[in-house]
Amino acid sequence: MLAGGEICRNIIFIESGLVRYYLDKDGEDQTNYFNKEGEFVCVYTSFLPQSPSGISIQALEDCVAWLISFDGIQQFYKEVEYGERFGRLAIEAVYLNAIAQIASLYTDTPEIRYKNFLRNYPAIVQRVPQYYIASYVGVKPQSLSRIRKRLAGAK
User: Fold this and answer.
1) Partner residues linked to 19 by β-bridges
2) Which CATH number characterizes residue 13's domain?
3) DSSP result, 55-124
4) Per-residue pLDDT averaged across 69-88, rounded?
5) Which class for 44: exposed (0-12), middle (13-18), buried (19 or more C-beta within 10 A)?
6) Count of structural domains within the chain
7) Which value, to the nearest 10 degrees, does the dihedral of the CA atoms of residues 127, 133, 136, 138 take?
């Protein structure tokens, strides 16, 4: 969908399917985020200034998606009543989510980040390979297995 170094030229709405956002850190993927059906996909730090993205987006499933280009969204903002308000509210939600994720990386243990993943993404837990979940949580797959085992034993 988007390779690192490319410019994100579209906002995508996923009708069906699943994607992940990731960084290539020293030849290893670091999963940052997931989007599923009913959500928008975009690397706003690339899309808004129309500059190269450091983040890649990969479809994890076949997707049915709708696209709107940078010029198209500018036209939408101008011509649709409350279009700019819609855009502002959407980007506010993205901003709040990004801040919460960054705070979690600095303050939460991997176990808490895994619990947050389960709480925030209950509909996709079975659809995402465990090594991507481990990457999202910030641990190796073996460590995620230990976390999962501990949590299962605590029930």
Assistant:
1) 35, 59
2) 2.60.120.10
3) -EEEESS--EEEEEEHHHHHHHHHHSTTHHHHHHHHHHHHHHHHHHHHHHHHH--HHHHHHHHHHH-TTT
4) 94
5) middle
6) 1
7) 180
Confirm whether 41 is domain-assigned. Answer: yes
| Residues constituting the chain | 155
Strand 64-69 with 18-25, pairing: unpaired
Residue 155: pLDDT band with limits 50, 70, 90: low
Digit-coded pLDDT (tens) for 14-53: 999 999 999 988 888 999 999 999 999 999 999 999 999 9
Please, which pLDDT band fits residue 5 given cuts at 50, 70 and 90? very high
Which residue is it, tokens 């605590």? 154
Would residue 133 count as lying in a domain?
no
